[in-house]
Design a protein that fits this description.
Strand order of the largest sheet: 1-4-5-8
Number of helices: 11
CATH superfamily of the largest domain: Butyryl-CoA Dehydrogenase, subunit A, domain 3
Helix content: 40-55%
Distance between the termini: 30 Å
Structural class: alpha+beta
Shape: globular
CATH class of the largest domain: Mainly Alpha
Radius of gyration: 21 Å
Largest sheet: 4 strands, mixed
Bound molecules: acetoacetyl-coenzyme A
C-alpha cells in the first residue's frame, strides 16, 4: 500500500490549484453574491482538460484515473464549490455515463464535445415528487415511430440553464416499475423543452440550478442510452461514481475552510498573542485536520477501488456520507475561529459553510447513503 501520489497526480493537483487561485478566487465572492455562472472559467476548465478528465483520449478526454479527478475537484472546490459541482456533474454523471453505456455514434456526437469542454452536460433524474425515492419517476417517454415523446418536469437540475446536452431519465413502461425506466440524450433547443425557474439557493450560488419542463418533446430513438428499461440502473451506476466526485467536493470545501482558519489564527491576536497559541483554537484546528485526513482516506479509497475495477458503490457512499459531514463541521468551526469576521462575505468561510450543506443533500442525501451502506452490509451477512 502506498499513500504517495504519482508525478501525474501531483501535476494535475498543482494545475487545478493554480487555476483555482488565479481564475476562480478573484471573482468567487461576487459570483456567489449575485448568482453569476462562471462561463469564462468553465470554458477555460474545458480547455485545460478538467471537464472530461477520465474519458479516453479517443473521445477527446484526459484518459486520467479517478485519483487525478478527485484531486482536481478537491483543489477547485477549496476555492469555489460551485465550479466543483459544475465539473463533477459533467465528468462523473454525464461523461462517465455516456462513455460507459453510450453507443459509438452517441460518443462521437456528444461525448467528444462534452469531454473537451465545447459542450456542457446536465443529469436529469430528480422530480418534484421523486428525489430520494428515485424510482417514482413521473416523467414519461412514449414510443412513436422512430421517436420517444417526453412529457414531465425535472427539478433541481445542476447546469440546468447552461447545459447543451441533458441526460433525461423517464418512465417508458409504468407497469414495470423501475425496470420500465429509460435514459435519453436530449439536446438544448429541442421543441417543447423549456428551462424553468432558476433556484435562489443557500449555497453553490454561482452554479446554475433549474427546473426543466418537457411538453411533447421528440427524441430520436438512437438517443436512448442502453436498452429500454435500463434507465434506473444507468442512473444508479452513474451516481455511484458521482458520489465520489461530490465527496471530493466536500473534502475541498473542508480543506479550503481549514486553510483559511489556520492562516487567520496566525494573524489575529487576542489576549496578547496570536489566537493559534490559545489551546481553544489549537484543539479546533487539530480536530478539523484529523477529520479532513480521515475523509481524504475514504475518498481516495473509493477512487482507488474504481480505478482497480472493483466494486466502489459502498465506498463511494461512505466517502460522501463522511466527507459531507466533515465539510459541514469544519466550515462551522472555521467561521467560529474567525469570530465576527467569519460572518461576513469578505473572509470566504461563511460562503463555504453555506456551500457545505448541499453536499449532504445532492446525489443522494446522507440518509440515502446510509441506506446504500446498510443494505450492502446486511446482504453480506446473509
Ligand atoms: N448501484 C447499482 N444498482 C443499484 C444501486 C446502486 N447503488 N441501488 C439500487 N440499484 C438497483 C438495484 O439493484 C435494483 O435493481 P434490480 O431490481 O435489477 O435488482 C434497482 O436498482 C432498484 O433498487 P431498490 O429496489 O434498492 O430501489 P429502492 O427504490 O428501494 O431504493 C435507492 C433505491 C438506493 C434509495 C435509490 O432510489 C437512490 O439512490 N435514491 C437517491 C437518488 C439520488 O441520489 N438522487 C440524486 C439526484 S441527481 C443529483 O443530485 C445530480 C446533481 O445535479 C448534482
Amino acid at each position: 500500500m502506498t499513500f504517495d501520489l504519482t508525478e501525474e497526480q501531483v501535476a494535475v493537483r498543482d494545475a487545478a490549484r493554480d487555476f483555482a487561485i488565479n481564475h476562480l478566487l478573484p471573482t468567487v465572492i461576487e459570483r456567489d453574491s449575485k448568482g453569476i455562472f462562471p462561463y469564462e472559467q468553465v470554458k477555460s476548465m474545458g480547455e485545460l482538460g478538467f471537464m472530461g478528465m477520465m474519458v479516453g483520449p479517443e473521445f477527446q478526454g484526459g484518459g486520467m484515473d479517478t485519483l487525478c479527478y478527485v484531486l482536481a475537484i478537491e483543489e477547485i472546490s477549496k476555492v469555489d464549490a460551485s465550479a466543483g459541482v459544475i465539473m463533477s456533474v459533467n465528468n462523473s454523471l454525464v461523461c462517465w455515463g455516456l462513455e460507459t453505456y453510450g453507443t459509438v455514434e452517441q460518443k462521437e456526437k456528444y461525448l467528444t464535445k462534452l469531454a473537451n469542454g465545447q459542450l456542457l452536460g446536465a443529469f436529469c433524474l430528480s422530480e418534484p415528487e421523486a428525489g430520494s425515492d428515485a424510482t417514482s419517476q413521473k416523467t414519461t417517454a412514449r414510443e412513436e415511430g422512430d421517436f420517444y415523446v417526453i412529457n414531465g418536469t425535472k427539478n433541481w437540475i445542476t447546469n440546468g440553464g447552461t447545459a447543451d446536452v441533458y441526460l433525461v431519465i423517464a418512465q417508458t413502461d409504468a407497469s414495470k416499475g423501475h425496470k420500465g425506466i429509460s435514459a435519453f440524450i436530449l439536446e438544448k433547443g429541442t421543441p417543447g423543452f423549456e428551462v424553468g425557474k432558476k433556484e435562489d439557493k443557500l449555497g453553490i450560488r454561482s452554479s446554475d440550478t433549474h427546473s426543466l419542463m418537457f411538453t411533447e418533446v421528440r427524441v430520436p430513438k438512437e438517443n436512448r442510452i442502453g436498452e429500454a428499461g435500463f434507465g434506473f440502473k444507468f442512473a444508479m451506476e452513474t451516481l455511484n461514481g458521482g458520489r465520489i466526485g461530490i465527496a471530493a467536493q466536500a473534502l475541498g470545501i473542508a480543506g479550503g475552510a481549514y486553510e483559511l482558519a489556520v492562516a487567520y489564527s496566525k494573524e489575529r491576536k487576542a489576549f496578547g498573542k496570536p489566537i493559534c497559541e490559545h489551546q481553544a483554537i489549537q484543539f479546533k484546528l487539530a480536530d478539523m485536520l484529523t477529520s479532513i485526513e480521515a475523509a481524504r482516506l475514504l475518498v481516495m479509497k473509493a477512487a482507488w477501488l474504481k480505478d482497480q475495477g472493483k466494486d466502489y458503490s459502498d465506498a463511494g457512499a461512505m466517502a460522501k456520507l463522511y466527507a459531507s459531514q466533515v465539510a459541514m463541521d469544519v466550515t462551522i468551526e472555521a467561521v467560529q475561529v474567525h469570530g465576527g469576521y467569519g460572518y461576513v462575505k469578505e473572509y470566504h468561510v461563511e460562503r463555504m459553510m453555506r456551500d457545505a450543506k448541499i453536499t449532504q443533500i445532492y446525489e443522494g442525501t446522507s440518509e440515502i447513503q446510509k441506506i446504500v451502506i446498510s443494505r450492502s452490509l446486511l446482504s453480506k451477512l446473509n
